[in-house]
Amino acid sequence: MVTHNLESTQSAQHGLSRAERLTDILSSAARVDLDGRDLVLDYVHALQAEGVAVLPLRAGEKLPATPNGVHGATTDPATFDAMYSTGCNLGMNLGASGIVVVDADTPAEVEDWQEWQKEHATSMPRATVATPGTAGVHHGGGHWWIDAENAGELKESKAGAATVMTGDRYVVLPGSVRTDVADPNQPAYVVQGAVYSSVQGSAVIEAARRVDKPETKTTREPNSTPVTSIDQWAQETEWEQLLIPDDWINTGDSDSCGCDIYTAPGTHANPKSATAHTGQCELSNNGGALAVWTDNPPQKLMDVIEDKGKRVSKFDYVTYMHHDGDTSAAFEALGLDYSTGGQALSAAELRGSGTSREATQPRGKVDLSVILADDYTPPTPTLWTRTDGENLLYPGRSHSVHGESESGKSLLMQALAAKLITDGQRVLYLDYEDTALSVIGRLRAMGTPDEATLSMLDYWNPEPAGGNCVEPEGLDYMAGQSYGLVVIDGVTTALSDAGLNSNDGDDVVQWFGKVVNYLATSTGAAVVVVDHVVKNGTGGRFAVGSNQKMGQLTGAAYTVDVLTPPAQGKVGTLEVYIGKDKGGGVRKFAETPNQHRQARVATVTVDGTGGGLSVTVDPPHEDTKRAKQATATDGAVSRVDLYLTGLGDEKRPSLHEIVYAIVATYDDGDGLPEARLKNLWKELSPRTTGGAKRFTTALNRAKDKGLIARKKRGSRAWVAAPGADISAPARALVEHIKLDAEKDAIEALE
């Protein structure tokens, strides 16, 4: 094996074409299973010096070892070195590398590809890389590499039976080995021929340049099913947009129909977990179906598979993966009007006029020299400080703090504002949900001097329908100031007042660009939008409305969860979870993420005793009271589940009475938050309750029958109705839960 020295290699190769230089590098490719780490990295670095974007693949496989799949490929040696584990295979992102690969998997495909060459006056006789093939499937094939660095935008096409691969696809690099090969004695990808120049491969490049993406079907043949709004959305949405954010990995392979093959999240012996059929595929229905092959898909996907089978539509995927099977919540999140039979509202209808929305400001070219400079400092959070000195907000970036009604999310930002004002920093507060009188009252309770508030706080109650927040003079004034913190409290109202729809992704992108991120970059402040969470009780990462609310953030996103409700004269406890961290400076000190990819990052104590109000932000902790409550609750629910499942159907309370029993026993006097109620429900056996999908029905029936009621109007906390008319089994259940809770409380004290 020859070690690549970049300086000597480049000097010796002066005057050679890129194709010739790549041929030379490949001719001495390192074997990942035989050569040491240093030799493998020398080989990779030589490729990267020629602009080849390399990614690590799992050892013995062709599946990416990077969390973001093919997008993890890099031309930076240090970045690759940090990702690479000794023995892993190597892959190349074709589009990022400026390489086109003709892929013929079998002798028949090779023969057809050679016939195609004759028809197009092309001569590329030997494959650049001989592929080992897989047992029982592909064998006798190869990859023909073509240097297409200056070819412009290309699209995947066919050259006879062979596939012309480009764009966001990857191939396995020579020197890699497979464990599932047709011949165990020949497990490696072996260099066989040269890398072809763009001139030699001009016919292939031209074919890839001419191919057009099939038009999206928007009409049906006569007598076929009309296109509905769901169908239209499905046609306009690529599977990649749904699967990649949920940690599915595009394997880079296509099924026999030409559609992409994906690997589900987690570890799988077979990388073929599902085929994502497009709307044009003959094997698909309207908009494309996900054909699931694995027996171990994500748990939430199991619900729809059990209900409807292993061919999953895009709408069902979103409904079950992100809304627990709640179709109305999915309609709301996707911006479809459920009340009008599922017909999407037009932009004109959303605004009440026929005008189209104004395009957002195009993004400009970034000066990369600033980021690449030796003295460049990555973004660092400096505000919203915990008691251990760690910070949660980035200056000059946008953030979201969202939670249920009365979760204390606005109070947290007002507490931060009070601290900054007292410390002599200016704060801008755009309030769509409250009044100046209420906010000033809280600032005073937190000890903020009136003179400091008067000089340091810019407080706005923006006018509706394009009022002073959206008009140029208002924004221009704000953008010309220097603030430490900007709070926009009430996102849904802010969008509505601006004539925009919080469920419309384009509207959200426009508003974030022109208001939120504009203020962050122009004022240098940490900008925080205060928002509500989705109304499905799942505790997910997202604020209500379009997921673009998460996508447009440049800083971090936080969810506030209530452990003990804050109130005057009481001590409340809140927990803060991080769901997104674009700067990367917060997650490193957060806890391990939960099933919603949220990580607990702070425990907040709100002390309303003594006539004042203090807010303390600590690192996540388990105080004594919470530990006892958790122990009592978990133990009680576990034994209650055993109790219920042991009863016959005739002795078991109805589902709405089970909801009542939970509220009646776990409400501590301030109401049981709906999210916690649902979590307790989900801890019970689905055989007893029907699972999470039956919760909303049971909750509404308990409310309609007068068994439970909201703590107060608009509250998300529930209380049991005094003297409720319940059955004997329900009364027995209440007593059973109380006895178990008392036992656990005594055990916790001991």
TrEMBL record:
Q: Which InterPro entries does the record match to this protein?
A: DNA_primase/pol_bifunc_N (IPR015330), P-loop_NTPase (IPR027417)
Q: Which residues form the DNA primase/polymerase bifunctional N-terminal domain?
A: 44-195
Name any one Pfam family assigned in the record.
AAA_25
Transmembrane residue ranges:
none
Q: Which SMART domains match?
A: Prim-Pol
Question: In its UniProt entry, what is this protein called?
Answer: Bifunctional DNA primase/polymerase domain protein
Classification from the root reads: Bacteria, Bacillati, Actinomycetota, Actinomycetes, Mycobacteriales
